Amino acid sequence: MNPYFPSPYRRAAFTLAGALALTLPTTGQASAHVEVHAEGAQAGTGPVTVSFSAESESPTVGIVRIKTQLPQGIDPADVSLATAPAGWTLVQTDDGFELSGPELGAGLDAEYGVTVAQLPSDATELTFPTLQYYADGREDAWIEPVTDAVPEPQKPAPVLTVAPAVAVATTAAATSTSADSASPRTAAASNPATDERSSIPAWALTGVAALVGLLAVGLWAWRRRAR
Asked: How far apart are CA 121 and CA 54, in angstroms?
């Protein structure tokens, strides 16, 4: 045993070192981020309200501006403000939109939402790279894509996952099947000769037969008298 570092003191030093290790910041992925969600969203549908939450990383100053790039298939002109902090407004940019307004309280997250006229029909994962600005000029760039090579980037761009679009069946096959399935009875009903013959009443046919019979009897009697 080391006389200058007795065992009880050594154990206390190790305990203190472990506690400090847990409280010190690490170099791993940042804890703050921008989240995005849209309840029940489905590709190819709209309008859809897309909600964002930009977490604050500053304990001293507040967020004053958010700038977001829209995914391919969504035009900036088709995006309008749904919800935002008091006094904040939306301005459409060339590739997305920008929100700004009075400084939020230090440490407060920026909660906002936009209405999208229609989501793209050919994508189920929509990425919204976002820049977050603070009152002191600091900027957080949440723009890094998640890839197979980098599954957990330091500053991941928010990604919205939506349900696949519903396949729309064409009506051409249904129309063709309907035409081919016409029954012989229907075809016969469209024949003019059949329609004309079937339209003669039964009493008329009986009367004609009786008249022909009377004429035959009269002709036979006339011939006999002539002899």
From this structure: 27
Give the mean model confidence (pLDDT) for residues 156-163: 97
* Other Cβ atoms within 10 Å of 88 Cβ, number: 19
Residue 121: count of CB within 10 angstroms of its CB: 14
Residues 98-148 have pLDDT tens digits of: 999 999 999 999 999 999 999 999 999 999 999 999 999 999 999 999 899
Residue 214, judged by CB atoms within 10 A of its CB (0-12, 13-18, 19+), counts as exposed
140 exposed, middle or buried (CB, 10 Å; 0-12, 13-18, 19+)? buried
CATH number of 31-161: 2.60.40.2230
Within 10 angstroms of residue 48's Cβ, the number of other Cβ atoms is 19
Domain residue extents for the chain: 31-161, 188-227
Residue 92 predicted with pLDDT over 90: yes
Report the alpha-carbon distance of residue 145 to residue 126 in Å, rounded: 11
Task: Look at residue 53 in the predicted model and tell me its pLDDT.
Answer: 97
What CA–CA distance (Å, rounded) separates 170 from 168? 6
Position 26 pLDDT exceeds 50: no
